[in-house]
Design brief:
The chain has 346 residues and is an alpha/beta fold. The chain is built from 10 helices and 13 strands. α1 packs across α10 and α6 packs parallel to α8. The longest helix has 16 residues. It starts with 7 loop residues before the first strand and ends in a 15-residue tail after the last helix.
Length: 346
Amino acid sequence: MLRYPHGMKIGVVGASGYAGGELLRYLALHPHFKPSVITAHSSAGEQITSIHPSLISYSGQAFSAYNPAEFADCDLVFLALPHGESAKVIAQLNPQTKIVDLGADYRLASEQSWAKYYGGDHAGTWTYGAPELPGKRSQIIASSRIANPGCYATAIALGTAPSSSFADLGDVVVVAASGTTGAGRSAKINLIASEVMGSLTSYKFGGAHQHTPEIEEALSSATGCDVAILFTPILAPMPRGILATISLKLTKEMTTEQAHAHYVETYKDEPFLTVLPLGEMPKTSSLTGTNHVTMQVAVDQRTQRLVISVALDNLGKGAAGQAIQNANLICGFPETTGLLGDGVSA
């Protein structure tokens, strides 16, 4: 018997941003998730295609203003709002409604970390939606409210977790570059083309990035290790994509071939994660528009450090694609439903 014999009523709050637009694109391809309520506060009344011209399947539809009454019958709601905004909306929704929050409001367990990196009141903690981390998939399936991970956090946690048995997670050094869509859609002088093209720059330097405590909490929960991350993000002159380089001190003798074999074995059954053959390196362009992750590992014998390279689409596996993956799990559908398309590399 079908779990939802009459189909599912889906709501999307905050659909005018980059992650919201990518979420609508995935929903248009999904056989069960068809959005019936699509809101965007600042763009209410505007045609969806005026903000997201590529979404021609939504031609003739307009964003509506947020009205909690319109979500009363929704089976599933996606929230794609700036941090600090989700909790206000959730308080007005049916407690029985399944929710996947693409924002940061419910990712952190530590109130102190929330206050330091985000400010304001800590809304609470939901199930962290990283299915590939140890023990998380079963927790997600049993949940109805999911905190979708951040884009950098996804890349770094997935790249680091398998090394916990032979590397020191108390000294993880990460340098990661992201495309400009990771900074959101609001106009900022430092993100206009004339400022970004042909240039690289670090930002939130010296451990100030808000994904730092999220990564540490996710890895500590998944591995049982004490975790400390030194994370330097870089703004790259490209619209989308993340490339993270992670290094850790080895705690036992290990060759590149042994480390690679361990990673391959760890992720061999994961539909969205590929450890590339030795000699191949992850490329952000190969993952554009997908929910996939690619990675490579090596051992620097001179320094006895493990090095991991991880690539993903910050709007796909780093946001909207992973949100659909989590929604599939909490709604009882196969995890890969609507998500198996290839990338759009030029």
